[in-house]
């Protein structure tokens, strides 16, 4: 018993070191979303100026969808845009855009210059962003056929994220 | 608001000597009767130091005003509702700047959340309902004071656990101290050996 007590500091140190080591791997910018496995928010966003179709929660029913919050003023979104175009070309999953706190014309110019991977885009002044728990752009959500949020990605999606996480998850959600 | 009032009063108190400096009678009084040496000591200096101190205290008092980011155009007309909105705003974390409340933050998201809190209050929500809504969107992290629940028990209970562990250790140590008893008596062989050693060392 007493000999075991001498090992206690070593044990405590080991536990703390392990805790800190795993803590180092946590990206503090990524917050867990309470929306996971919950029904997606109800909203109805108007279209960008001059376009016919906006984006509302009704669009999320009956098929798996990717919801991407972006803005023309967001530099990482520009980087992500190419990845989204590649994903759109696979035609595996429709991509809906929430144009977050953006000027309509700026978003139209951005789409015109860089291409449009979105099935439809809604213009948001920030209120619907809050509904989705958006605290920065870009953020991306996967919504299943019943309109429940199943996955959230914070920050720009990379090609590896698409191949390793998004597409396999789309396959699983479609089953 | 109370802090604001207090800093205002402090500013007034600090200003007091300055008012005297500007009145000619007071200046004369400070200088003393004519013929006496001027500029002796710190207060004989025509009250200039008093003026400097007064200005400094006003400036410091101005700094003491709490740094609120709430804009006048966000505020509700009803002071009771606005006070509730402030209470809620102090509890909610700005997720852009992380260690500021939404009331203290200049971030766009904090502004949007302040407006949302006020909209919900104006629509008749209780404080609890407003906070619950924001938590349902952003999770517990949006609360500056984490709630006590299953995954936070270690956070809240940690200090108590450490205290209990310390008490257990201290109790163990003290009990062992009390239990230190006389060593067992020497065996006959040991007694013989002891006698021999004592004989040898005797002169």
- Mean of the pLDDT scores of chain A? 94
Described by its quaternary structure, the protein is heterodimer
H-E order of chain A: HHEEEHEHEHEEH
* Low-confidence regions of chain A: none
Strand content of chain B: under 5%
Number of strands of chain B: 0
The level of helicity of chain A is 40-55%
Terminal CA distance of chain A reads: 56 Å
Low-confidence stretches of chain B: 1-44
Would you tell me the structural class of the helices and strands of chain B?
mainly alpha
Q: How would you describe this structure to a colleague?
A:
The complex is a heterodimer of chains A (175) and B (203). With 175 residues, chain A is an alpha/beta fold. Helices cover 40% and strands 18% of the residues of chain A. Chain A has six helices and seven strands, in the order ααβββαβαβαββα. Chain A has helices at residues 2-6, 8-24, 75-90, 104-114, 127-131, 159-174; strands at 44-45, 55-56, 65-70, 95-100, 120-124, 139-143, 149-154. In chain A, the strands form two sheets. Chain A has a five-stranded mixed β-sheet with strand order 5-4-3-6-7. In chain A, β4 (95-100), α4 and β5 form a beta-alpha-beta unit. The radius of gyration of chain A is 20 Å and the shape is elongated. Chain A starts with a helix and ends with a helix. In chain A, 35% of the residues are buried. The model of chain A has no long low-confidence stretch (mean pLDDT 94). Chain B is mainly alpha-helical. Chain B is 62% helix and 0% strand. Chain B contains eight helices and no strands. In chain B, α1 (2-22) runs antiparallel to α3 (48-63), α4 packs across α5 and α5 runs antiparallel to α6. The model of chain B is unreliable at 1-44 (pLDDT under 50).
């Amino acid at each position: 018993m007493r000999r075991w007590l001498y090992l206690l500091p070593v044990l405590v140190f080991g536990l703390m070191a392990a805790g800190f080591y795993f803590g180092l791997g946590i990206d503090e910018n990524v917050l867990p979303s309470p929306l996971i496995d919950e029904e997606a928010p109800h909203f109805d966003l108007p279209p960008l100026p001059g376009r016919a179709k906006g984006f509302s929660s009704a669009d999320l029913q009956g098929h798996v969808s990717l919801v991407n919050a972006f803005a023309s003023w967001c530099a990482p979104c520009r980087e992500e845009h190419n990845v989204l175009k590649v994903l759109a070309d696979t035609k595996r999953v429709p991509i809906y855009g929430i144009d977050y706190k953006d000027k309509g014309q700026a978003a139209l110019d951005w789409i015109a210059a860089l291409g449009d991977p979105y099935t439809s885009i809604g213009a948001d002044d920030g209120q619907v962003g809050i509904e989705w728990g958006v605290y920065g752009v870009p953020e991306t959500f996967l919504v299943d056929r019943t309109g429940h949020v199943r996955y959230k990605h914070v920050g720009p999606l990379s090609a590896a994220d698409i191949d390793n996480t998004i597409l396999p998850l789309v396959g699983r959600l479609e089953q | 608001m109370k802090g604001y009032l207090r800093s205002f009063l402090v500013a007034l108190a600090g200003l007091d000597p300055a008012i005297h400096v500007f009145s000619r009678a007071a200046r004369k009084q400070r200088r003393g009767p004519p013929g006496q040496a001027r500029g002796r000591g710190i207060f004989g200096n025509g009250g200039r130091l008093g003026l400097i101190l007064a200005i400094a205290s006003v400036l410091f008092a101005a700094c003491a005003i709490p740094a609120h980011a709430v804009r006048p155009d966000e505020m509700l007309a009803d002071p009771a509702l606005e006070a509730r909105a402030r209470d809620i705003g102090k509890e909610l974390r700005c997720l852009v700047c992380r260690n500021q409340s939404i009331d203290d933050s200049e971030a766009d998201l904090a502004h949007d959340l302040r407006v949302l809190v006020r909209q919900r209050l104006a629509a008749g929500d209780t404080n609890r309902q407003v906070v619950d809504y924001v938590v349902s969107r952003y999770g517990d992290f949006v609360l500056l004071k984490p709630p006590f629940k299953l995954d936070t028990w270690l956070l809240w209970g940690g200090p108590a656990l450490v205290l209990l562990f310390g008490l257990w250790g201290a109790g163990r140590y003290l009990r062992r101290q009390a239990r230190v008893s006389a060593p067992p008596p020497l065996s006959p062989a040991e007694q013989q050996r002891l006698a021999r050693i004592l004989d040898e060392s005797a002169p």
